[in-house]
Amino acid sequence: MDKIRIRGGAPLSGNITISGAKNAALPLMAACLLTDKPLHLVNVPDLSDVTSMAELLTQLGGEVDFKKAAESHRMTLCAKDLSSTTAPYDLVRKMRASVLVLGPLVARAGEANVSLPGGCAIGTRPIDLHLKGLEALGAEIALDGGYIHAKAPQGLKGATFTFPIISVTGTENLLMAATLAKGETRLINAAREPEVGDLAHCLNGMGAKISGIGTDTLIIEGVNRLEGTTHHVIADRIEAGTYAMAAALTNGSVRLKGAHLALIPTVAALLQQAGVELEENDDSVLVKGPSDRLQGVDMMTEPFPGFATDLQAQWMALMSLTEGAAMITETIWENRFMHVPELCRMGANITVHGSSALVRGVQQLKGAPVMATDLRASVSLVLAGLVATGDTLINRVYHLDRGYERVEEKLRACGADIERVR
Ligand code: EPU
Questions:
Q1: How far apart are CA 261 and CA 147, in angstroms?
Q2: Of all protein residues, whose CA lies closest to atom 36 belonging to ligand 1?
């Protein structure tokens, strides 16, 4: 199994090009199921989660052609004829975002059988809201043998659905389903994450009639059919935030090409409070570490535009070297502190109290062998390794490959001493 070895200490300096967003690409790929025409996606990141989604779409009868070029990967997806409406356990358990095929399949084929995703490392992750929303649109849902069986033989009907709590993929599933429903659908308390907006824009490019994009109320006027289109996937704000924190931690200076502060408003504000300099130009953000020590800044994760939970572990690595202390509160996932014991093994001083963690800044982290437990936890260990004295060896890096494209290459180009070992 691959490992990553990092020798810390070098301040990062140079340019990093931000890839297309994983969490935008996955629903966009699933949207190909809504039409028999080709969907062209530009700026698709080359990640194992993208490969898993492509495998699932192929299983359903779609054709996926992924052309990887140095700067901009292009993917053409075409689900001319659906050969199956079943998303099997073996594929869904590998990647929970597989549940994103549920809405499009019911809308286009009138039925879907999708394995229940089950729990995962960061929380129980129920999908009850996806199912309640589809029921509101007229689907009949039954759970049997570990599968969701959804049926709408006469097609879906527009309705108003209010999310009791904000769900990103729940909003995306219902948004896709509603595009082909009869009449108007209103999704209230919808997720406002930029990836939801990106999906809505692509669907409109395919002929859907969605308004309210970027707000918490999405209004969808159903249409009879959707066409193909070409769509550019937005930049990965989580990748941008991660490398911004890497630059800050190592007291470096890194230009993030393709990054936009509007996609990480709260993260940007908190980085500045911690003493990090951010300078936005046309299509890049220059991040510079503080002239003095980083300051401790409290943080709470929240749905967009709040601080993204997918940057919580990285913020914790950053806060572990500050002057003073920081309270970090996780409000989205109930089990997303698995990086804490690993960071502590590297010398961080962190105590967890329920859903909050108190991080007391230390002068120095020390390299150690550590274990990656999920995607974002893994990258927080990479950040810690970049600034620690000596060698850090990160085990189980397959988690990283799910969401970070060419991570060693990008960091090495900025002077990091990092390599993959087998
Ligand atoms: N929830 C329910 N019922 C539902 C759906 C969600 O109770 O039917 C709860 C969840 O248990 C959680 C909260 O609502 O406590 C938010 O979950 P959400 O549905 O928004 O999460 P998701 O859509 O499954 C996406 C991202 C995650 C990211 C979360 C929160 C994708 C493919 N995944 O997950 O990304 O953490 O939104 O922003 O978009 C990652 O990339 O590392 C990652 C985990």
A1: 41
A2: 310
pLDDT in tens, 45-101: 999 999 999 999 999 999 999 999 876 799 999 999 999 999 999 999 889 999 999
Within 10 angstroms of residue 350's Cβ, the number of other Cβ atoms is 21
**Residue 72, CA distances (Å) to 75, 114, 340 in order:** 10, 32, 36
Taking the whole predicted model, whether its pTM rises above 0.90 is answered as: yes
CA of 168 to the centre of ligand 1 (A): 6
Tell me, yes or no, if 120 is annotated catalytic: yes
Q: Does the Cβ of 97 fall within 6 Å of ligand 1?
A: yes
How far apart (Å, rounded) are the C-alpha atoms in residues 82 and 98?
16
First CA to last CA distance, the chain: 6
Give residue-wise pLDDT tens across range 218-269: 999 999 999 999 999 999 999 999 999 999 999 999 999 999 999 999 999 9
Residues 6 or more apart from 409 whose CB is under 8 A from it? none
Establish whether the linkage from the previous residue to 305 is cis, with ω within 30° of 0: yes
User: Is the beta carbon of 377 within 6 A of some atom in ligand 1?
Assistant: no
Q: What are phi and psi of 287, to 5 degrees?
A: -115, 125
